Amino acid sequence: MRNSSNMILLTFFGSTLSDRVHIGSINLRCFSCYGYGHGKSSCKEASRCGNCSALNSHSEDHCNVVAYCFHYHDAHQVRSRQCPRYRLEQDILQLANSQFISLGSARRKLLYRQKDGTGATSYASLAARSSAESASPKTTPSATSRSVGAGGPVHFVRRAS
Q1: How does pLDDT run across 103-151, given as a tens digit for each residue?
Q2: Which helix (H) or strand (E) covers residue 147, if one does?
Q3: Residues with Cβ < 8 Å from 95, sequence gap 6 or more?
Q4: How far is Cα 90 from Cα 18, in angstroms, rounded to an integer?
Q5: Which residues contact 6 (CB under 8 A, 6 or more apart)?
Q6: Which region is the signal sequence (predicted)?
Q7: What is the pLDDT of residues 31-71, one digit of tens each?
Q8: Complete DSSP assignment for 61-105
Q9: Which of 20, 30, 46, 106 is most buried, by CB atoms within 10 Å?
């Protein structure tokens, strides 16, 4: 059962805490051109309809055309969370956050495995494969848990011992 609380539990591995904690990023998708990696406010591309992908022609609120995604040339809305491109971006974020690597490294790793034909097209299969590859941890971590209030960046202050 989930309770309504403004607290989250963070678990740290190791014996030292860093000055700051980065809690994963969200999928950065532009709601003007429907590209990835930037937001609407910094978009330099032509705007698209979120339903039919048409360039600069009309508002998606008044679109009566059949849904079309320019990313996958398929009959679904470009803004759909079921879009394979959206799911790929989610997998990249999950891989980057779970393996503590950059988004670029996660993207290359995931796309290489897809192209390589290893079948690692989902995060679950990629995580299972990469955990087998790195079976021996670099350090022997001990877990430390802290509860912190939610609602903004999380910063920790080091205390003198």
Answers
A1: 889 999 988 877 666 554 555 554 554 444 444 444 433 344 344 444 4
A2: strand 143-149
A3: 101, 106, 109, 110, 123, 126, 127
A4: 26
A5: 149, 150, 151
A6: 1-18
A7: 999 999 889 999 999 999 999 999 988 878 889 999 999 99
A8: GG--SPP-BTTTTBSS-TT-TTSHHHHHHHHHHHHHHHHT--HHH
A9: 106
Angle at 77 between CA 76 and CA 79, to 5 degrees: 135
User: Which tokens belong to 155?
Assistant: 């910063």
Amino acid at 25: S
Inter-residue contact 53 to 46 (CB < 8 Å)? no
The alpha carbon torsion through 69, 63, 33, 83 (nearest 10 deg) reads -30
* CA gap 52, 89 in Å, rounded: 21
Q: Residue 136's pLDDT is what?
A: 40
- In angstroms, the CA 142 to CA 11 distance is 10
For tokens 């988004």, name the residue: 103
Whether 48 and 38 have beta carbons less than 8 Å apart is answered as no
